[in-house]
Amino acid sequence: MTINETQALELINKIIEKQAIILGPKIATGKAQNIKVLSLSKTGLAIRITSDPKQVIEDLVDAYVHLSGEIIRNSINVLMSNFPDIKKSLN
């Protein structure tokens, strides 16, 4: 299943927003900015994906998990429950 870029961006922004609460906005957006195929606005909003959205989501989750551990993966899974098509595609 192909992931819709609009939905992927919505999920990515929710993930970044949640991580900004946990880690602080600079760290949360910094990790997202390290993903070269993900473009962020000056305010830290994900606005474009220039590669496979599935891979971008996985890379972003992995970056936060690497920083904060598995607890982050659990909190992100809660967010993904609002995006069943993407969650199904990632499993």
Q: Which terms would index this structure?
A:
single chain; 91 residues; two-stranded antiparallel ribbon; 5 helices
Protein model, in words:
The protein has one domain (5-85). The longest helix is centred in the first third of the chain and has 19 residues, at 5-23. Strand 1 (38-40) and strand 2 (46-49) form a beta hairpin. It has 91 residues and is mainly alpha-helical. The chain has 5 helices and 2 strands. The chain has helices at residues 5-23, 25-33, 53-68, 70-80, 84-90; strands at residues 38-40, 46-49. Strands 1-2 form a two-stranded antiparallel ribbon.
Number of domains: 1
How many individual helices?
A: 5
Round the mean pLDDT to the nearest integer and report it: 90
Beta-strand proportion? 5-15%
Q: Rg, please? A: 12 Å
Q: Profile the largest sheet.
A: 2 strands, antiparallel
Distance between the termini: 11 Å
Which regions contain 5 or more consecutive residues with pLDDT less than 50?
none
Order of helices and strands: HHEEHHH
**Mass-distribution shape:** globular
Helix/strand-derived class? mainly alpha
Give the fraction of residues assigned to helices.
55-70%
How many distinct beta strands?
2
Give the strand line-up of the largest sheet: 1-2
